[in-house]
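Researcher: We're reviewing a set of sequences before deciding which ones to prioritize for further study. For each one, I'd like a predicted 3D structure that I can look through quickly. This is Large ribosomal subunit protein uL23m. If possible, include the structure in token form so it fits the rest of the review sheet.
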Amino acid sequence: MSTPFRQGLKKVYLPNIVFKMVRSPNLQPNQVAFRVPPSCNKFDIHSYLTNIYGVNVQEVRTMNYATVHKKTRTGQTEVKQPAYKKAIVTIDEPFTYPSEPEWCALEREQYKLGSKNAGRKMKGWRFRGPEEERTRMKEIQTEIHERMEAEQGRKK
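Model: Here's the predicted structure for Large ribosomal subunit protein uL23m, in token form for your review sheet.
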């Protein structure tokens, strides 16, 4: 009796391309947007999602975006954004984005408070912000520190 799958006889498909999922609020529930390299065509996108992730793809639409060039003050041209392709994939079941982790909200709030303090310093105002901002910044820093210690404890 032979087995249906033998080691070494099937070709292994390991792509070296990266698909980045993009949040697009104006899409239908069964559509997902990806940012893919410009060299990928619709057939590549369809086969990648079907073979690697086992997704039933119904339709693939693509849009090409050109490279954005900007000139500096000296007249040199530099690339601000490379060329990419956006693919909108229609799948057979509704898709929901995963919820945002709580550490993202903490880091976003820490960034917001830090940039506000930096702005005060640049404008020559008081270096220290109001008392409630300073206490909130300390709370955020302790929460982030506790989360990092918990992750270190899990790794050991």
